[in-house]
Amino acid sequence: MPELPEVETVRRGLEPIIGHQVVGCRVRRRDVIRDLGSSSTNNRRGKLNDQSLLIGCTITELRRHGKQLAIIACPDQTDQADRSQTTIDKEDLRIAIVIHLGMSGQLLRSNSNAKTTPAKHVHVVWTLDDEQRISFQDPRRFGKVVLHPSLTSLENDWSKLGDDGVTISARALETACRRTSRTIKAALLDQKLIAGVGNIYADESLFDAGINPNAISKELTNDQFKALAYSIRKILKAAIKARGSTLRDYRDANNQSGSAQLLHKVYGRAGEPCLVCSSTICSAQLVQRTTCWCPQCQPDRTR
Ligand SMILES: [Zn+2]
């Protein structure tokens, strides 16, 4: 399941689309799209207008927060020529689409000249003015494409998320985690507290910081929050450098696998010896997710 490093790797791989105009968009499955600009009560249905799908817009920016990726675009310049005398702030015209990769989603960039048969699970395809193509495919359909009618709509949505994991400060982490009585593992998975950390990097960060995943979040010490914030930033940055973890489905925007799975010290290693102390890595279901930790390096001080 793609977490922050995987989504950041996809974002970087898509950079060649910046500055290009979207000339077409083919929607093969309407129900993967949520149209927030729609007046209908069900934003998964109904006709989509060209501009909300970015047709005729020039891509200006690729922004990421946590596990979400936004493609930000501005309507065609020629439309604005007529309005130039009214000096409308260009920022106000920007719109965005947000991609949630879910469990198995992929956003792939290719050249539309390439003779490839479209994969079975390709749900939306955008074509750019230079023949580049962006395809959203998602076999398990836990992912989605959200159309935001304005940048404000995007920013409002993202303001509900916690700070981004890659830059999280000890103070922000502590403030967020002290709001909950749940375990620290559950707190790290809650995107409203900290954005971008999922099961893999939560386990790896807790191991790196020497904190037991069952510890009660708000009972951690000041020093533990400092250590944990540092570990989260370090683990996420190392994973970005390794271009994300490929366990099953994940591929970057150029259909390449990542190698961050080779850095995992506890995730997926239950029953194997700890790389630090040789104790057996244990695992249990926590927050309905398999959680792995070292009983020696991550002692449970509450017992
Ligand atoms: Zn250990």
Overall description:
This protein has helices spanning 4-13, 77-81, 151-158, 170-177, 184-189, 199-209, 222-241, and strands spanning 22-27, 33-35, 57-65, 68-75, 95-100, 106-111, 122-128, 132-137, 144-148, 163-164, 194-195, 282-286, 289-293. The protein has 303 residues and is α+β, with helices and mostly antiparallel strands. The strands form 4 sheets. A 5-stranded mixed β-sheet has the order 2-9-5-4-3. Strands 1-7-8-6 form a 4-stranded antiparallel β-sheet, with no helix packed on it. The structure holds zinc ion.
Q: Characteristics of this structure?
A:
about 300 residues, about 25% strand, single chain, 5-stranded mixed beta sheet, binds zinc ion, alpha+beta, 13 strands
Short overview:
The protein has 7 helices and 13 strands.
Report the bound ligands by name, code or SMILES. zinc ion
How many beta strands in the DSSP annotation?
13
What is the molecular shape?
A: elongated
Order of helices and strands: HEEEEHEEEEEHEHHEHHEE
Low-confidence stretches are none
Fold blueprint:
Layout: H1 4-13, E1 22-27, E2 33-35, E3 57-65, E4 68-75, H2 77-81, E5 95-100, E6 106-111, E7 122-128, E8 132-137, E9 144-148, H3 151-158, E10 163-164, H4 170-177, H5 184-189, E11 194-195, H6 199-209, H7 222-241, E12 282-286, E13 289-293
The structure holds zinc ion.
Residues 274, 276-277, 279, 294, 296-297 line the site of zinc ion.
